[in-house]
């Protein structure tokens, strides 16, 4: 099998995934996934699509992650892995879509407006 590459985004994080046949090794920015994502919750989020279709130990995944924080990066990686699995086998689509792994979360930080301290907050009103 050739290498499948996909991209996933969340907030300002971008995950580029290269999926190939292997033993289930996930490498993020040349580090092991458990070294990069230190909490169990983030590791769980990253591995959700693989566990949903029971292929966690069939593919090696190499990831380039940039931007954002750990949470956004984990969710961007989840989307990219789900997209790669669909390229391999389109029959995975219904299972992954039902769990919401194929939906790109569009929520991003709102920009700061001029004349205000933050995006929506106003300075305190003074009558006198």
Task: Please tell me about this protein's structure.
The chain has helices spanning 33-36, 40-52, 70-88, 93-99; strands spanning 4-10, 13-21, 26-28, 31-32, 59-66. The chain has 128 residues and is an alpha+beta fold. It has one domain: Ribosomal Protein S5, domain 2, CATH 3.30.230. The radius of gyration is 18 Å and the shape is elongated. Helix 2 runs parallel beside helix 3.
Which features does this protein show?
128 residues, alpha+beta, Ribosomal Protein S5, domain 2, 23% strand
**Largest sheet, strands/sense/barrel:** 5 strands, mixed
From the helix content, strand content and strand pairing, which structural class follows? Answer: alpha+beta
Give the beta-strand count: 5
Q: What is the CATH architecture descriptor?
A: 2-Layer Sandwich
Structural domains: how many: 1
Q: Please state the oligomeric state of the protein chains shown.
A: single chain
User: What overall geometry do the principal axes of the alpha carbons give?
Assistant: elongated
Cα end-to-end separation: 73 Å
CATH topology call:
Ribosomal Protein S5, domain 2
Low-confidence runs of at least 5 consecutive residues: none
Radius of gyration based on Cα positions: 18 Å
The helix content is 25-40%
| Helical segment count | 4
Order of helices and strands: EEEEHHEHH
Look at the structure and give the CATH class. Alpha Beta
Strand order of the biggest β-sheet? 1-2-5-3-4
Beta-strand percent range: 15-25%
Mean pLDDT: 94
